[in-house]
Design goal:
- Pfam families: Hydrolase.
- Keywords: Hydrolase.
- This is HAD-IA family hydrolase.
- This protein is of the alpha/beta class and about 240 residues long.
- Helices cover about 45% and strands about 10% of the residues.
- Strands 3-2-1-4-5-6 form a six-stranded parallel β-sheet.
- The N and C termini lie close together (about 10 Å).
Length: about 240
């Protein structure tokens, strides 16, 4: 299956070969099984501001910068426009609630996959819409030997979050100025898939949430896996 995906990508982009040099990972729902915590934190924090955040909405907006998500919610639910400073104040409450919750575990299969990627000589880059510094810092400890600070893209690195291509284009720069066909994206959210595709990168989806696979494939995911374990087990087939 994966060989067919690569063949289609090469055909679509008029490439004679496909030899990626980096894999760009989203963080929440991909590296960490953290989306349940994020959903709870969004719901509890936004209640204080009169906003309703259904669980599915957290997955639909996942990957977008938190301040952008809040600005959208304010427009849609309260018909109010707020600036980034006000949105950041509200987002900080969401971050505070999140930090009170149990630590989200590493997603099963991730370390196995990272070993295979590293053994193949590819770089690992993290591209997240998160602005929660403790969670970003945790990457350096949990994935020591695989992830370094210089190859993490967060909400602090871009002014336009996913679904804009900016975060993944920034990831290519941090990987050494790679071209889109020299990388792959692993995502779990519709907006993240849209961002990877808009950047011109072969984008793989792992459906770790409640949305149907079509929510990811319809955004341009080249293939949708059920979980990270399945992707890790299939990786040897990929090359």
């Amino acid at each position: 299956m994966f060989q067919q995906v690569i063949h289609q990508y090469k055909e679509d982009h008029q490439l004679s070969t496909f030899k990626p040099k980096a894999v760009l990972f989203d963080m929440d729902g991909v590296l960490y099984d953290s989306m349940k915590n994020h959903t709870y934190a969004w719901q509890e924090a936004m209640k204080k501001f009169g906003l309703d955040v259904p669980a599915e909405m957290t997955y639909q907006y996942e990957g977008m910068r938190g301040v952008e998500t809040i600005q959208i919610l304010m427009r849609e639910q309260r018909n109010e426009t707020i600036d980034e400073d006000e949105a950041l104040r509200m987002y900080n409450e969401k971050a505070r609630v999140f930090e009170t919750l149990p630590t989200a575990p590493i997603m099963p299969g991730v370390l196995k996959l990272m070993h295979k990627i590293k053994d193949a000589g590819l770089q690992i880059v993290v591209v997240t819409g998160s602005a929660q510094k403790p969670l970003i810092e945790r990457l350096l400890t949990d994935f020591e030997g695989f992830i370094v600070r210089e190859k993490i893209v967060s909400a602090y690195d871009v002014t336009r979050g996913k679904p804009a291509p900016d975060p993944y284009l920034k990831g290519l720069l941090k990987a050494g100025g790679l071209q889109p066909h020299e990388a792959m994206v692993v995502e779990n959210a519709p907006l993240g898939v849209s961002a990877g595709v808009a950047a011109g990168i072969l984008t793989i989806a792992v459906n770790s949430g409640p949305l149907p696979n079509e929510a990811l494939s319809s955004r341009g995911a080249a293939v949708v896996y059920d979980d990270m374990e399945q992707l890790a087990n299939d990786w040897h087939v990929c090359w």
